[in-house]
Amino acid sequence: MWVVLYHYSAQCFPNLDPAQYTHLFHKGYLAVDLFFMLSGFVMTHVYHRAFSETVTPQHYWKFIFARIARVYPLHILVLLLFVATAVGFHLATGASPSLDDVPLRGPESVTAFVANVFMLQGLKAGQLSWNYPAWSISVEFVAYLLFPFALAAIWRLSGRAKVGVALSLLAALVILAGLSKGNFDQWDGPITLARCLPEFIFGTLLYWVFRAAPADSWFARDSAALLVIAAIVVCLHADGPDLLITCLFGAFIPIAVLNTGTFAKWAGAPALIWLGDVSYSLYLLHGFLQFSAGKLLAYFGVQNHANLSLGSSFVFMGLMVGTCLLAAHFTYFGVEIGCRQYLREILDAQIKKRRAKMSKSAPSTRRISAPA
Questions:
Q1: 295: buried, middle or exposed (CB in 10 Å: 19+, 13-18, 0-12)?
Q2: Over the Cα atoms of the chain, what is R_g?
Q3: Domains of the chain: which residue ranges?
Q4: Rounded distance between C-alpha atoms, residue 40 and residue 207, angstroms
Q5: Residue 203 and residue 44: Cα distance in Å, rounded?
Q6: To 10 degrees, the CA torsion angle through 118, 124, 127, 128?
Q7: 262-276 burial by CB neighbour count: b if 16+ within 10 A, else e?
Q8: DSSP 8-class letter at 370
Q9: What string of DSSP letters covers 94-117?
Q10: CB of 192 within 8 A of CB of 126?
Q11: Contact residues for 327 (Cβ-Cβ < 8 A; gap 6+)
């Protein structure tokens, strides 16, 4: 939701830009950095038993297939919606269908479509995007490919060695801050990997911190959670350094999970659980809604969103956010869960078929009883 408000307020409806009052919305791109670390944390929680000792081909490809089943179906659906909407509005303007009108290169082109099908758009999102927020799932898939090997290597390290790895990752983020002049809003080109990979692996180490921390420590109390949240909000409001805010995110994740007080009850509220469930759908769909709304406004003669009044901007933004949430609810249950279950059933069937074939081809091991 933070990313949605960031994109819609300043980029989609410039009259709603609240940067003159607070930078809370302007810093919304940092939600992606929080997501990279949280993703590494959750992946480690789920898969540390499978990959803590070694990486077998069977477990590796099962993990990759599970990741594809999780992120790919909705990604492809939204990509097809983009193409269909672009073609529909092109024809609605009275233009006759012609192959000469099909762009071969650049954003919203044939080349970009192929790159999105293979989830390669994140390596050069400025030229390969249809759904521009999807750059992050592209580069995160690179992290998925490396994650089992990184986890196996890190999990065997001593505590001091893990601290050394954490300091190395922090140094990598310091270098990123230097290269980007302190701006972590890097979404185009290979530099995105320098943003994603250290933060994702850092999430793996945060899970180790979570497991090592005593359950009755100060970090499990509400005061710790409130202190970190307050520091994050103040830094966001005051346009603090992206590097500092990202480090505070790193402190917030294990503290939030360790919490056993009021904060944990608040974070487990049904509305927040629902938002967490639909968050991936919300993230992928909001770019499509922004794209469609832009096409619709242009069709009715509004070429520049700055020409909209403040009231009209609020109305349009409210409609877009509401539509995003409603659509995300249905795509979560209908596409994410449905396709994931279907694809996993296919994988399970293939595994059973392979095991049955191997058992038939194995030599007989029938025991022969000796006489008493």
A1: middle
A2: 24
A3: 2-338
A4: 8
A5: 8
A6: 10
A7: ebeeeeeeeeeeeee
A8: P
A9: TPPP-GGGS--SSTTSHHHHHHHH
A10: no
A11: 281, 285, 289
DSSP summary character for residue 79: H
Distance in angstroms (rounded) separating the CA atoms of residues 32 and 184: 10
- In b/e form, how buried is each residue of 141-159, taking b as 16+ CB within 10 angstroms? bbbbeebbebbbebbeeee
- Distance CA(372)–CA(366), nearest Å, equals 19
Question: Using CA atoms, how far apart are residues 42 and 200, in angstroms rounded to an integer?
Answer: 10
Per-residue pLDDT of the chain (372 residues; tens, 9 = 90+): 999 999 988 767 778 878 888 999 999 999 999 999 999 999 999 999 999 888 999 899 999 999 999 999 999 999 999 999 988 887 777 666 666 667 888 888 999 999 999 999 998 999 999 999 999 999 999 999 999 999 999 999 999 999 999 999 999 999 999 999 999 999 999 999 999 999 999 999 999 999 999 888 899 999 999 999 999 999 999 999 999 999 999 999 999 999 999 999 999 999 999 999 999 999 999 999 999 988 888 877 877 777 788 888 888 889 999 999 999 999 999 999 999 989 888 878 887 787 777 777 766 544 444 444
**By the 8 A CB rule, do 16 and 119 touch?**
no
Helix (H, G, I), strand (E, B) or coil at 132: helix
Write the CB contacts of 24 (distance below 8 Å, at least 6 apart in sequence).
18, 233, 236, 237
